Automatic annotation (TrEMBL):
Protein name: Xylulose kinase
Reaction catalysis annotation: D-xylulose + ATP = D-xylulose 5-phosphate + ADP + H(+)
Gene name linked to the record: xylB
Keywords, sorted A to Z: ATP-binding, Carbohydrate metabolism, Kinase, Nucleotide-binding, Transferase, Xylose metabolism
Domain spans labelled Carbohydrate kinase FGGY C-terminal: 256-427
Entry keyword Transferase: yes
InterPro entries linked to this entry: ATPase_NBD (IPR043129), Carb_kinase_FGGY (IPR000577), Carb_kinase_FGGY_CS (IPR018483), FGGY_C (IPR018485), FGGY_Carb_Kinase (IPR050406), FGGY_N (IPR018484), Xylulokinase (IPR006000)
Family membership noted in the UniProt record: Belongs to the FGGY kinase family.
Coiled coil ranges: none
Length: 481
């Protein structure tokens, strides 16, 4: 037996690059065991992963947790948002999942926006103007390009739903993750039958949307995982909504998450509806809202630039007037799905370290542009930004965010806030507590604060100028290059 004070729970984060599992003491928030196993994502035109890998990675991550996982009384799975998982009558994937950062459905997104009333109508209806990340556009792409896959599909799931169903045998999802599909109406909090009819998706193929705090089932014996009989399963949610739980986030505090995706978000009590499409009007996992902007190019893109230059990711140098837009995967914020990376202002005396700093600046610029938009008007804009995700460990990321935001930056010591949020949700179904209150009790946001500095307006203006001047290049579709 572990020396934990309270019951134990397991929180899972199945994100783009890996699945992580934490075993957490409900009384103290102490992480008593952890595990992590990688996934692979296809390269080339699309971004796909075989969902069976996520299950194998979950088993491996739990195996690494050892006996502590066997003692867990509840588990919850948080996962990368938006991925389209199509299952056949046996529950097996019909094809690999189309991930959030697959931009092939950009034409379908454009068409759907036009056909169903334009950007404002979509924002009011679903909270978001669908771009290629949003699941409904992926379903429309599949219907057009692989009608045989659509015909073979008897269930449609998101990544966290897929794993939760393998645990419980029940097809369920939650409002946080459902709000990223484009077929969930944020006004009524129900599936939008008109949108579904428009794309030919039968609503009976979708999972039941459970209430926050509902126990969705218990772990099946047949799951073959190291859980005791009767282990409760919590609803789970999308990874950003889980991190908001994991931070015990209150309205008015902004979060910047630096992982495969870059995201900026805040909790709001007001239902968002941004007709420009910059802010996605997601629901959170508790009953509030999570206005969020997301970039496709964050840590992987900057690490790629460092690798190309042959230098360490921390080997940045200041003082350049070079601009690097690191849109290696196309971009979502700004909405440039067909863009590629762009370099401007290179001189004989530009150093490799300056080029790398320019890549950090380009990545952070996109996120900061949306910062004010995700915060309510009455938010305290002098409060520190919370910096999380794998990139938050890096000094170059921390200093870039501090310099370009002109805000104080707080870096929580807790490393895995998505998995911690899932653990807080699992604790909530066990004790009846609000998961965000659990996380506050665990003091998960604790960490050093980098003091406020002067905002680098010159760099911000230079980057904005290049984006604007290069618009025709950045907007050009791949086959026009
Ligand atoms: N010390 C560090 N400094 C900078 N970046 C880091 C550091 N540690 C990890 N990373 C970056 O974090 C990323 C993984 O972050 P994570 O939030 O786990 O991603 P995801 O949840 O999207 O799978 C990797 O791409 C890696 O480049
Ligand atoms: O698409 C979004 C948010 O809308 C992404 O944030 C995904 O949820 C993937 O997250 P990570 O794997 O980068 O954590």
């Amino acid at each position: 037996m572990s020396a934990a004070e309270g019951p134990l729970v397991v929180g899972v984060d199945t994100s783009t690059q890996s699945t992580k599992a934490l075993v957490v003491d409900v009384a103290t928030g102490e992480v008593v065991a952890s595990g992590q196993a990688p996934h692979t994502v296809s390269s080339g035109a699309g971004r796909e992963s075989d969902p069976r890998q996520w299950w194998d990675a979950l088993r491996e991550a739990l195996h690494q947790c050892g006996d502590a996982a066997r003692e867990a009384a509840a588990v919850s799975v948080a996962g990368q948002q938006h991925g389209l998982v199509t299952l056949d009558a046996q529950g097996a994937p019909v094809r690999p999942a189309l991930l959030w950062n697959d931009v092939r459905s950009a034409p379908q997104a454009r068409r759907l926006v036009e056909e169903l009333g334009g950007p404002k109508a979509w924002a009011e209806r679903t909270g978001s103007v669908p771009g290629p990340s949003i699941t409904v556009t992926k379903w429309a792409w599949l219907a057009e390009h692989e009608p045989e896959s659509v015909r073979a599909t008897t269930a449609v799931r998101l990544p966290h739903d897929y794993l939760t169903e393998l645990l419980t045998g029940q097809g369920t999802t939650d409002r946080g993750d459902a709000s990223g599909t484009g077929w969930w109406a944020s006004g009524t909090e129900a599936y939008d039958e008109e949108v579904l009819g428009h794309v030919g998706l039968d609503p009976t193929l979708l999972p039941r949307v459970v209430r926050p705090g509902e126990v969705v089932g218990t772990v099946r014996d047949s799951a073959g995982l190291p859980f005791a009989k009767g282990t409760l399963v919590a609803p789970g949610t999308g990874d950003n909504a889980a991190a908001a739980l994991g931070l015990g986030l209150r309205p008015g505090t902004a979060v910047l998450s630096l992982g495969t995706s870059g995201t900026v978000y805040a909790v709001s009590t007001r239902r968002p509806a941004d007709p420009t499409g910059t802010v996605a009007g997601f629901a959170d996992a508790r009953g509030d809202w999570l206005p969020l902007a997301c970039t496709l190019n964050c840590t992987l893109a900057v690490d790629r630039v460092a690798a190309l230059l042959g230098i360490d990711r921390e080997a940045v140098e200041p003082g350049a007037s070079v601009t690097l837009l690191p849109y290696l995967d196309g971009e979502r914020t700004p909405a440039l799905p067909h863009a590629s990376g762009l370099l401007h202002g290179l001189r004989h005396d530009t150093t490799a370290g300056q080029l790398l700093q320019a890549a950090y600046d380009g990545a952070v610029h996109s996120l900061l542009g949306a910062l004010d938009l995700v915060l309510d008007e009455d938010a305290d804009r002098s409060a520190p930004l919370l910096l999380i995700g794998g990139g938050a460990r890096g000094r170059a990321w921390q200093q870039t965010v501090r310099r370009l935001s002109g805000r104080a930056v707080q870096v929580p010591e807790a490393k895995e806030l998505v998995a911690l949020g899932a653990a807080a949700q699992a604790a909530g179904v066990l004790t009846g507590e609000d998961p965000a209150a659990v996380a506050r009790r665990w003091n998960t946001a604790r960490g050093p604060v980098l003091e406020v500095g002067e905002r680098d307006e010159a760099a911000l203006a230079r980057i904005a100028g290049v984006i604007s001047d290069a618009a025709p290049l950045l907007e050009r579709e791949a086959d026009q290059r």
